[in-house]
Amino acid sequence: MPNVTVRLAGLKLRNPTVLASGFLGETGPSLVRVWKAGAGAVVSKSISREPRLGYANPTIHEADGSLLNAVGLPNPGVKAYAAEARHALKAGVTLIASVFGSTPDDYARVAAALEKAGAHAVEMNLSCPHVEGTGSEIAQSEEAVRTFVAAVKAKTHVPVFAKLSPNVAEIAPFAVAAEEGGADGITAINTVKAMAISPEVRRPVLAHGTGGLSGPAVKPVGVRCVYEIYDAVDIPILGVGGVATGLDAVEYLMAGASAVQVGTAILTRGVEVFRKVTEEIAAFLEAEGYRNVREVVGAAHG
User: Fold this and answer.
1) pLDDT tens figures, 118-165
2) Distance CA 201, CA 247 (A)
3) How far is CA 21 from CA 212, 257, 290, in A?
4) In a domain, 60, yes or no
């Protein structure tokens, strides 16, 4: 059988599937559950310095198999979440801590605290499309991306991934800015800014109005972004957006991702989706004569 282990910015993953932030990442036990279901690594809920309540309901809307959400990044704050991280780590989980804030120092302090708790890597949520001041503005400025990444790198010693927004004219320059700031890898993409309207009540479905679209509808956008980033930087890419099957994952790998994140597909295929996707990747590799995952990374670039 082909070798499905991957190396990602110094991390060794048992397979190329990673839990995306925002799904089952709220508690230590839920992270352990995903790990036992076969994920190669897990990304935590996005965590801030202080507790955050998030938005009022409705916050989630199902849209033809995809999800539109404006939850508002609710979380208990880094001090409380450190205990959840330690619970997961005691179970042997490979943990990537997702962090956010309003200033470079916010990001750096949260990242350092979660590294101290034992996180193996940090993912900087630089691009939430529906939370003003904690991502949406950062994602629109190359200089801000560079500055925020540099601040986190100055305070941490684990690999740092910059999660970028598709809601820009060209994503590759932002990946270059993250690399210049010292990022060890890129996560692409965050959700696509979108809206749904209820004809009956004549207003947006979500209380916040706009939200972030995830799931099958955004996969072509994600694949395109990864493809463009691969040609622009020399650091590895975590592909995310609409991965539900092994062939979805292979698209991202061939576009240039070294591993993929899975989120919305948990709702349609269950938490076992990580094991299923890994098995489907392995079956494809074997059928096509590949020896390992690395051989397909970037294959679509010729």
Assistant:
1) 999 999 999 776 566 555 568 889 999 999 999 999 999 999 999 999
2) 40
3) 13, 17, 30
4) no
Question: How many structural domains compose the chain?
Answer: 1
Is the CA virtual torsion 217, 298, 153, 80 positive or negative? positive
In a domain, 36, yes or no: yes
CATH code (residue 96): 3.20.20.70
Percent of residues in the chain assigned helix, strand, coil, to nearest 5: 40, 20, 40
Tokens coding 104: 């470079």
Q: Convert the pLDDT of each residue in 219-256 to its tens digit.
A: 999 999 999 999 999 999 999 999 999 999 999 999 99
Three-point CA angle 46, 96, 86, nearest 5° = 90
Any domain includes 38: yes
Return d(Cα 90, Cα 118) in angstroms, integer: 10
Pick from 10, 41, 93: which is nearest to 278 by CA? Answer: 41
Which domain, by its residues, includes 189?
A: 6-52+74-193+212-301
Please give the structure tokens belonging to residue 204.
Answer: 């947006």
Angle at 251 between CA 224 and CA 166, to 5 degrees: 25
Residues 6+ apart with CB under 8 A from 224: 255
Specify if 199 maps to a domain. no
pTM, full prediction? 0.95
Q: Which residues are designated catalytic?
A: 128
- Cβ pair 42, 31 in contact under 8 A: yes
